[in-house]
Every structure is written in structure tokens, then in C-alpha cells.
């Protein structure tokens, strides 16, 4: 499948959300939408390889493909080495984060800080592309601090495209503030400027552009997608995952997975149990997190969430807890539990 089509819809890399359990859960909803790891720093890969053939931070399941490993860092050689290890581990693509504005990335001078150094970004990208055979892409903002003109981001894209040979940019369609806003505010306060991304696509038609930021529903996707090559969805994927169960049909012209929510919960519980049998130490709370919003918008969603969040129920064992919540949902909202995406009125 060619890259532009593969990336028609993708799920944004999100710290403490897009870990392996979330990605496996999402594969029960859609087999085509591109998944991303959380951002992984170059050193977390390079310095931990001695622990096993591949670092624990690169753990993933074969069902996750297509899946992208997102890297953070600012050293071309170290990033190239990390990209090589991720490729050997089996990831489909490498992505460099040049958009995260958190204090942690500022302390390490990577993430959104790098937007101020387009030539260094180009060096990082070129080194990674030389080191691997899989695609290398870039995720960035439209600007940073007072470097927030269209001319700035246009120049940034041009330099990284020409010097770094990058042909796919994921554009978070707002600027980043390195000081004064926390990560949540940086995702909501700076205004979205979709028109800038549309203009970049017009000026660089040979580059693939994926737009990220503020996309919450299919109606919004349908408005934006004709102007770019792909859409990346972040928080809404966690807040309303069931919506994605119809995306293989809507955006990829194929058949949906078409699992109902009962089947999704059962298969996810099987994955969790199999993972724990290998010694995985992910807490029950973190195992619950991916599925906590599966009934978002449905009646008795609150009761479902409360049952899974109650630590007393965690003592049942994960599979036992899931079996019980399924029994409850038969009583609380059997229609939502058993309806299949092909029959659901989204």
C-alpha cells in the first residue's frame, strides 16, 4: 500500500496513551489507520539495548501493523542508530518529533525547540534516512514562540524537505509556546490555522502533508481531507474510540473489522492475559485506560466506567473483571454492547 493512502487516517503519538495496549485495542477497531508509539527518546533505545535484543520501550505486537515508531532527540548520529534499531525491531516507519513543547523536551533541547534549528532538523532526518530503508517522516508545529509567521514555517518546510529529503510532514496546525503554557494548553490555546497547511500543500504539491489538531468527528474529517493528504487524530481517538470502527469502510474503501463491543472486550482481555503470562507488569489501571471510553455517548456509559475504575473490581483479575462488566452491559445497554459497526448509526 502506498504511503499516501496508508496515512489517510492516523492516530497521533500521545504520552501515556498510545502504548502497546492502546494500539492493540485500536487494531480491534480498524486494521488500516496508522498507529504511532509514544515519543521515545533516542537514549531510551540506544542505552537500553543491552537488556535484550530490542529495548522494552520498543515492545509491540504483530497485529499493530502499520505502526510508526516516533523518536525524540537532537543528535543526528544517535537518532540514526535508534532508527536502525527500531527498523530491526520491525516498525514500518520512523517519525521525528519536532512539535512537543513540554518542559522535559525543553530541558533536552529537542521536540518543538528544534523548530528554531531547521538545518539541524534536516541533518537529523538525512542521517536517519541514510541509516534505514523504511520511510522517515517529521511531525512539527506551524511555529514556536515569536517565530510564528507563515514565512517562517514555509522556510522551515523548504529547508527540511530539500536538505533532509523529507517528503512527508505531519503538521500540528498551531504554534507552540515554550514558556507560559502547559502541554494541555499548548494543544488548545494557540489558534488552529488549517489554511496555512492547505497553502503549504499548494506550494509544495510534491510533499505529502498530514494535518493534525482539533479533528473530532467524521464531518470535520470530510471537510479537511480534500485539502491535504492525510488526517491525524489525537485526543478524540482516546475519548471516542468506537467512531473508528467504521473508518476502514469510510476512508479505505474496505471492509470494517465489524467486531461488536462485546467481542472487542473479550479479545482485548485475552491479549492482556497473554501479555501478563509473559511477565508484563503493566498495571490493571493502565490496562483499563484504552477501553474506558468504549461506550462513550451511550446510555449507562458512566456505570461502565465506574465499574472498570473501581479498584475492588480489579481484584477479580482482568479477564474476570471484563466478564463481569460484559454481564452488566447486557443489563445496562445490550444494544450498544452487541451492535456491529456496519449496523450502527454513527
UniProtKB/TrEMBL annotation:
Residues annotated for FMN binding in this entry: 70, 139, 172, 212-214, 234-235
EC code: 1.3.1.-
KW Flavoprotein (keyword) present: yes
SUPFAM superfamilies attached to this UniProt entry: FMN-linked oxidoreductases
Residues the record marks as active site: 100 (proton donor)
HAMAP family linked to this entry: DusA_subfam
Family as reported in the entry's similarity comment: Belongs to the dus family.
Role noted for this protein: Catalyzes the synthesis of dihydrouridine, a modified base found in the D-loop of most tRNAs.
Protein name per Swiss-Prot or TrEMBL: tRNA-dihydrouridine synthase
Species for this entry: Paramecium tetraurelia
Amino acid at each position: 500500500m502506498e504511503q499516501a493512502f496508508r496515512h489517510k487516517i492516523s492516530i497521533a503519538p500521545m504520552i501515556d496513551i498510545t502504548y502497546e495496549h492502546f494500539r492493540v485495542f485500536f487494531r480491534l477497531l480498524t486494521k488500516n489507520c496508522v498507529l504511532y508509539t509514544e515519543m521515545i527518546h533516542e537514549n531510551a533505545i540506544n542505552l537500553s539495548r543491552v537488556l535484550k535484543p530490542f529495548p522494552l520501550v520498543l515492545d509491540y505486537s504483530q497485529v499493530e501493523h502499520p505502526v510508526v515508531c516516533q523518536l525524540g532527540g537532537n543528535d543526528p548520529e544517535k537518532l540514526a542508530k535508534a532508527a536502525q534499531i527500531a527498523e530491526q525491531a520491525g516498525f514500518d516507519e520512523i517519525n521525528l518529533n519536532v512539535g512537543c513543547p513540554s518542559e522535559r523536551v525543553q530541558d533536552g533541547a529537542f521536540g518543538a525547540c528544534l523548530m528554531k534549528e531547521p538545518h539541524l532538523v534536516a541533518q537529523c532526518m538525512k542521517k536517519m534516512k541514510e541509516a534505514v530503508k523504511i520511510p522517515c517522516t517529521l511531525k512539527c508545529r506551524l511555529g514556536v514562540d515569536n517565530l510564528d509567521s507563515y514565512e517562517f514555517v514555509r522556510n522551515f518546510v523548504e529547508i527540511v524537505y530539500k536538505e533532509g529529503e523529507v517528503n512527508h510532514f505531519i503538521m500540528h496546525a498551531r504554534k507552540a509556546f515554550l514558556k507560559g503554557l502547559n502541554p494541555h494548553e499548548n494543544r488548545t490555546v494557540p489558534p488552529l490555522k488549517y489554511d496555512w497547511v492547505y497553502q503549504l500543500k499548494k506550494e509544495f504539491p510534491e510533499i505529502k502533508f498530514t494535518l493534525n489538531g482539533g479533528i473530532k468527528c467524521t464531518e470535520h474529517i470530510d471537510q479537511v481531507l480534500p485539502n491535504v493528504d492525510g488526517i491525524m487524530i489525537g485526543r478524540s481517538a482516546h475519548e471516542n474510540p468506537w467512531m473508528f470502527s467504521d473508518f476502514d469502510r469510510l476512508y479505505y474503501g474496505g471492509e470494517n473489522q465489524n467486531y461488536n463491543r462485546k467481542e472487542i472486550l473479550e479479545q482485548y482481555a485475552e491479549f492482556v492475559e497473554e501479555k501478563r503470562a509473559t511477565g508484563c507488569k503493566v498495571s490493571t489501571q493502565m490496562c483499563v485506560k484504552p477501553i474506558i471510553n468504549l461506550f462513550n455517548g451511550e446510555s449507562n456509559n458512566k456505570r461502565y466506567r465506574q465499574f472498570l475504575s473501581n479498584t475492588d473490581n480489579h481484584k477479580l483479575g482482568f479477564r474476570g473483571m471484563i466478564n463481569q462488566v460484559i454481564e452488566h452491559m447486557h443489563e445496562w445497554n445490550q444494544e450498544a454492547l452487541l451492535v456491529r459497526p456496519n449496523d450502527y448509526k454513527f
